[in-house]
Amino acid sequence: MKYDVAIIGGGPGGYVAAIRMAQLGLHPVLIEQDRVGGVCLNRGCVPTKALYAATELISRAARAEKFGVKFAPPTIAIDRLVAWKDEVAGKLVAGVEQLLHANGVTVVRAAGTITAAGEIALSSGGAVEAAKIVLAVGSSPVEIPGFSYADQAVWSSDDALSPNTVPRRLVVIGGGVIGLELATIYARLGTKVVVLEMMPTILPGLDLDRRIRARVAAGLKKQGIEVRVQTAAASHETTGDGVVVRTQDGEEFPADYVLLAVGRRPNSAGLDKLG
């Protein structure tokens, strides 16, 4: 079928573009192989903030002891916590789907590959033709040498947001926003967390005042999170009690799981023929 414009990717870039183009009188098709909403709604901002908000209750209960109000240690039903997080995200995804439908956007559930000018092959079979094509393919977690997501002990941020269990020990590689948010969530759940950051400071990608970084660092320390800067992870080894993460300087950090939070890369595979 022919369209005025085809958008590959149904995240915040893609679905907003599709809706706006429909409002401007064009006939758009949105091609998305997973749920609309992209990383933000499904595996990023929204589920992370949902878990952050839920675990804040644990933190507040612990602080209440200062005022003479003491609660029993919480029991964590991790399956229910993950399900609740999914429900929060699901409501927002449903809202996006309704907006697309209300604005007359055609949604195709498939992966799209550009095969020629104005032509997109679909993983479900067939093809879509469009006068214009918008690429909004999003991103995926990055691996680093010595660590592979094929290893069940190595988590991406996706894995950390849908765990089957609360680990006793977690090594987080990467002291950026994603790493520190997840470190905080797991520390509240009772996990002993160590963050390894190869740069001289935490949150290295942000233009922050040094006093703000110091405030964040103090908050992490208060939660019992150990942060090691200028510490580059080099490899890991499976042991009888989990894994051991080794740094380039030879230090060892035992853990049940390793969380890679070193950034994301564009999902540009198959698009290189565009030049």
SSE order, one letter for each helix or strand: EHEHHHEEEEEEHEHEHEEEEEE
Number of strands: 16
Radius of gyration: 22 Å
Q: What are the segments in which pLDDT stays under 50 over at least 5 consecutive residues?
A: none
Pairing-aware structural class of the strands and helices?
A: alpha/beta
Would you mind describing this structure in some detail?
With 275 residues, the chain is an alpha/beta fold. Helix content is 33%, strand content 28%. It contains seven helices and 16 strands. The strands form four sheets. A six-stranded mixed sheet has the order 3-2-1-6-5-4, with helices on one face. Helix 3 (45-63) runs antiparallel to helix 4 (78-102) and helix 3 packs across helix 6 (177-188). The longest helix has 25 residues, at 78-102. It is globular and about 65 Å long. The model has no long low-confidence stretch (mean pLDDT 95).
